[in-house]
Amino acid sequence: MRWNNVAIESLSHVLPANVIKSSELEASIQPILKRLGLPPGQIEKLSGVRERRWWDEGVQPSVPATLAGRMALKQAGLGADHVDA
Predict the structure, then answer these.
(1) What distance in Å separates the CA atoms of residue 5 and residue 69, rounded to the nearest whole number?
(2) Which of 9, 34, 38, 65 is 20 to 30 Å from the Cα of 22, by its Cα?
(3) pLDDT tens digits, residue range 30-39?
């Protein structure tokens, strides 16, 4: 398929509200880490992940995707009628 006259006018994102930091996760397994002789900060150091986010149970991917799409259209000053998909 060939695309003509296509442009990215705007980008947007929506983050889940539920956040757990690596330090919180590590605190919950502290006895295990201590028994293994691992110093604090190992989860973030080894994974490179500072925090994790997730949606509430039952949230369909289309809900935040639609919200992000609407935000991107608004930022670009466009309406849904400008999207031909």
Answers:
(1) 20
(2) 65
(3) 999 999 998 9
